[in-house]
Amino acid sequence: MKSKIFLQLITALFVFFSVLNKATASPVPEEEAVRWANATGYALIEALGNPDLEQKYIALDKMFQNDVDTVYVARFVIGRYWRTMAPEQQRTYLKLFSRYVLSLYKNYPLDFETAGIDFTITTARINGNYTDIFCNVKLPENMASENLNSVTLEFKVTKNAGKIKIVDLKIGESSLLLTYRTRFYTMIKDADEDMDWFLEDLETLTVSNEKNAEEKLLYR
Q1: The CATH number of the domain where 28 resides is what?
Q2: Residue 112 — φ and ψ, nearest 5°?
Q3: Average pLDDT over residues 75-91
Q4: Residue 164 has pLDDT above 50, yes or no
Q5: 38: buried, middle or exposed (CB in 10 Å: 19+, 13-18, 0-12)?
Q6: Other CB atoms within 10 Å distance of the CB of residue 155
Q7: Average pLDDT for the chain
Q8: Which domain holds residue 191?
Q9: Rounded to the nearest 5°, which phi and psi values hold at 110?
Q10: Which residues fall within 8 angstroms of residue 120, CB to CB, at 6 or more apart?
Q11: How many structural domains is the chain composed of?
């Protein structure tokens, strides 16, 4: 169960580091990609290991805000429905999506020890306009099981305006950006493709996440 929660947390943390901009994408040299992956990975572990929950939130929020193109990601996950929205709906959605991003990971348990978490970059190779990085994450003893003591991740990076960004993450064969697009498409269809109803549902979900995060701070 703990290993499952850890995988869910990885999903929540990494998926919104995503940027996808094929027009300006360029591959990251392999050695540079490895250095960046190591630095980013250890920065994430350090942030997760902060015993002060409020400071942990601040550090993780800062990483998201510095490394996420939330405008593009927001448009990507609703795909064709972006074009059906009125300008005011688009503005409302973009602001709401940024709040949703920052509320999402806070609903996962963040009070675990990170001392036993480690990772190894096994390889990095250029693939067209991108660089694929393969990483093996070692689970700490309190999360590992007989059948699962490590997780293999593959993430794709690109360089835009001189800054390295993750464009996708795979756990096994599952692309997380596509997984989240599926989730948002389901929400939109559940709202009968009425974008006002969809925005109300997303607002309700986001507010619930935010309240849960506030309660964790109050009762920590």
Answers
A1: 3.10.450.710
A2: -90, 160
A3: 93
A4: yes
A5: middle
A6: 22
A7: 81
A8: 2-218
A9: -120, 15
A10: 135, 136, 138
A11: 1
